[in-house]
Design a protein that fits this description.
By secondary structure, the protein is mostly helical. It has helices spanning 35-88, 93-104, 110-124, 128-142, and strands at 162-164, 170-172. It has a two-stranded antiparallel ribbon with strand order 1-2.
């Protein structure tokens, strides 16, 4: 089929531009679609999608800021509870575990992680097995590193038995 060049008016030489419904330009009737209207519609959809994406990113950013604010409040409140447990040398397993459970939800925050580790070190002398389960709960929920390393320990796990090291971090016995 030969290529027919288009002139400035948008008509092909020797042909009149027709709409999809068969009507020629200037005739009454509803045009289903034209190339220009399709492009405009696509551009409008793209702008709406970009606007929606911008709104979504902004909403996610706001959620992240709110989570950080909430974490700061939680750290303040849990700090008082952790200090009270340590000062009283409480051996109340329910109290300690309730506190660890609550802090775990905020361990994305460095301050909360410090409290969690501090209470885990204290709890280890009371119930080592339960403490190890809390270390593993942290790793499952928050650890982004390889499964054989985590921020609650500084060494590669070899025996699977976790103990507090002399720096206060959780590490494995070798």
């Amino acid at each position: 089929m030969p290529i027919v060049p288009q002139n400035d008016s948008g008509y092909f030489h020797g042909f009149q531009k027709t709409r999809h419904d068969g009507a020629t330009k200037g005739q009454k009737g509803h045009a289903k679609s034209t190339w220009k209207s399709d492009v405009k519609r696509a551009e409008t959809m793209k702008m709406k999608a970009e606007s929606t994406m911008d709104d979504l990113v902004q909403s996610i950013g706001q959620l992240a800021m709110n989570a950080q604010k909430l974490a700061r409040i939680a750290v303040q409140q849990y700090s008082a509870e952790v200090e009270a447990i340590l000062k009283a040398q409480s051996r109340d397993v329910r109290r300690i575990e309730r506190c660890l459970d609550g802090i775990l939800d905020f361990c994305f925050d460095d301050g909360a992680l410090v409290l969690y580790k501090k209470l885990c070190r204290y709890y280890f002398d009371i119930d080592p097995e339960a403490t190890v389960s809390y270390v593993h709960a942290y790793r499952e929920m928050w650890d982004e590193q390889k499964p054989d390393k985590g921020p609650l320990d500084g060494e590669t796990r070899q025996t699977g038995h976790t103990t507090p090291d002399d720096k206060g971090a959780m590490s494995d016995e070798t």
